[in-house]
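Researcher: Next sequence.
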Amino acid sequence: MHSTRATILRLTRLTDTSLIVTWLSGGHGLIKTVAKGARRPKSPFAGSIDLFFGGDLVFEWAKRGDLHHLREVSIHSWREGLRKSYDSMLLAGYCCQLIEAAVEPEHPDDGLHDLLDRALDHLDGNPASFRALRHFERELARLLGVSHQERSADQSLADLLGRLPATREALVERLHPNQDFRSSGSEMHR
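Model: Next structure:
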């Protein structure tokens, strides 16, 4: 059995009652666990597994493959504040997508785990902003060793990853400081 502090990046339905939970931890990197019965109402995981939650987990390494067995979860960071805004949820999802694309499975990196937790904690207490998006990209590029003075962080990350997640375009459109998003929905789509 292994214990680590981690943050949930992705939830994938495995069966009618079970989930695959993708976590980022400092000590174990990107790991995937099977939460058997997590979708049942009386599951021991009920209320403890949702996107962007952070806490301690206990898991057992799989004998074959990369799908490990989740045994226990103790959540410390519910991050309820970021769920109050669609923009915050969109930016949090984008940060998780970038991290998942950039990190090798089961390769520990405390710096990347800390960066993601700081970003999610920021969105928990503050509205999403273009500045926060750019800061996350700059810090990620720096930690991955691909930041260049002559190139923007998003260009460096796109070169490294092949492309950036598709959600970035919608985020830039919604959060860019030169846009006025207080206008009505019909004016926004012109």
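Model: Confidence is low (pLDDT under 50) at residues 180-190. DSSP finds six helices and five strands in the chain.
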